């Protein structure tokens, strides 16, 4: 009977020991797996952090490159604007030169000055003092150009930088073409400015009237002066 009890006690002891060993094994295995998982997570986190650092460095480099390219683009845009301005100025100069040379038609507001021979006094000893001479026409033309006229024509004959005016008796020769009085001088420019310049007290108009020249001035909203015809046309 006592031997039987001892066997039961030993069985219980072995059972408890077996349970304890089994629990200890499971606990150790769980801890090891946990350690392995933590190591893998740490390695993964490290890789992700390294990738993030690389991306940040790459992003900084790209931003620097973008900034440099933007600066170059701004420089190119400024250069293009400057070139366009230079070309625009050149185009204006060329157009102005063509206008001076009489190569293009000009239209706009302006004035028309008409000069005619005066009525001869029967008692006058010098009839030529009542006739329009080249200096009379030249005085008007010069005053118009000085006052900003863009183009001037005499009896429809366009004047250029090479034009000449000569007096031959009762007629005036303009660039080889002869015109009798009256002489109609057309000028394109600011009409008010041109009118004031010609009518200025003690100016061109007063001189002409004092020399018995018939003088007339009209302001026009539109005057058209055609280009000079080339010899080959």
What does this entry look like structurally?
This protein is α+β, with helices and mostly antiparallel strands. The protein has two domains: 1-74; 106-225, Protein of unknown function DUF881 (Alpha-Beta Plaits, 2-Layer Sandwich), CATH 3.30.70. 55% of the residues lie in helices and 20% in strands. The protein contains four helices and eight strands; from the N terminus they run αβαββββββααβ. The strands form two sheets. A five-stranded antiparallel beta sheet has the order 3-2-7-1-8. A hairpin with a 2-residue loop joins strand 4 (165-168) and strand 5. The longest helix has 99 residues, at 2-100. The N and C termini lie far apart (152 Å). The model has no long low-confidence stretch (mean pLDDT 79).
Q: Tell me what portion of residues adopts beta-strand conformation.
A: 15-25%
Mean pLDDT: 79
Total helices: the number is 4
- The ordered string of helix (H) and strand (E) elements is HEHEEEEEEHHE
Computed CA radius of gyration, to the nearest angstrom? 53 Å
The coarse overall form would be rod-shaped
Q: Helix- and strand-based class?
A: alpha+beta
Identify the strand order in the major beta sheet. Answer: 3-2-7-1-8
* Low-confidence regions: none
